[in-house]
Amino acid sequence: MTATPAVSVITPTRNRARLLRETLDCVAAQTLPDWEHIVVGDGADAETAELMAERTAADPRVTFMVRQSPNAGANVCRNIGIALARADLLVFLDDDDVLAAGCLAGRVEVMRRNPDLDFAVFRAEVFEHQPGDLGRPYHRLDPADDLLRFLSLDCPWQTSGPIWRRSYIAGIGAFDEDLQSLQDLELHVRALCRRPRYLIAPTTDHYVRAQLDEARTSTRHFHDPDVIRSSEAVPGKLLAHVERAGLLSWSRRRALLGLEFGAAERWVGAGRLGEALRSWREACRRMRAPATISAGGALLLRLARLPGAQNGWPSRLLNKWKGWVRFRQEPALTPAAPGTAASR
């Protein structure tokens, strides 16, 4: 294996051999043969080790290694994959997502035709059992302020959506290994703050699995105290990125405050009102929130603890309050940041 592949596909995994098998199969079925698939295990159970031994023996384009560093997590594994990658183009494919057969060929061709691009983003569908069974777009990718959408937690694409130039990923510092949740959001905000040259392609070429897995960090994000506490660091990091880039508008600051309030809400959901109030108080200080918003948020967090609050009037009042304080903007009506993509 001496020739440099056209694209390196990097997959972090942790003891999900059944799902990983489908992800391996979709890469093996690509119409573009000139790829390498680097799978990095965040630990590996016997089933995963056996599966990967079988695949690496059958196809030299597939590489498997298990993380040896003391730091753990998907971001650590992705960065290991970046270090091992030989191609100039990178795709990060989660171990429960699936690529359409022509995905890599289409993405590589777009990047070859547009050598000025730092990355390109492709559309996704959500599926449950097999690709195409729901026919539901992951998120809309209309022309809008993509940076504001990420800050509002209305993420227009997720980890498997872009194809990156390796040099651009290296330039922004790859993945933040300190984060347990909101990892791809932080990376994409950091990337957009560098005013990249990117496009959003009209092609749907990958599928994001819709499933509730209690072991997934994205699920634990809502109830695990350790993950909630880790997520509190994210808005501050995002604020620093946007401020350094000179892109902090009123709407983006307010969206970040809404992201902070989300962490406080998750503390309430975990049954920890004291932590929720602490988190909100610190967020209001950090984001320079008006006293009326600080007091209103604290009151609504307390109301959210009432019996039946999730389906009753406290929930309706909370949603109206979020709209009134403009935690969620309308990105299509907001001036876009420099570097915002156009569809091609």
Brief summary:
The protein is α/β, with parallel strands linked by helices and 344 residues long. It has helices at 17-28, 46-58, 74-84, 103-113, 146-151, 166-172, 183-192, 217-220, 225-231, 233-244, 250-269, 273-287, 291-303, 313-324, and strands spanning 7-13, 35-41, 62-66, 89-92, 98-99, 119-127, 136-137, 162-165, 198-209, 342-343.
Fourth CATH level, the homologous superfamily of the largest domain: Spore Coat Polysaccharide Biosynthesis Protein SpsA, Chain A
Q: Oligomeric state of the chains?
A: single chain
What is the annotated CATH architecture of the largest domain? Alpha-Beta Complex
The main pleated sheet reads as: 10 strands, mixed
- N- and C-termini, Cα separation: 35 Å
Count up the helices.
Answer: 14
Order of helices and strands: EHEHEHEEHEEHEHHEHHHHHHHE
Q: For the CA atoms, what is the radius of gyration?
A: 21 Å
In terms of per-residue confidence, which ranges show pLDDT below 50 for 5 or more consecutive residues?
Answer: none
Strand residue content: 15-25%
CATH topology of the largest domain: Spore Coat Polysaccharide Biosynthesis Protein SpsA, Chain A
Number of domains: 2
- The secondary-structure class comes to alpha/beta
Task: Based on Cα principal axes, name the global outline.
Answer: globular
How many β strands by DSSP? 10
* Helix fraction bin: 40-55%
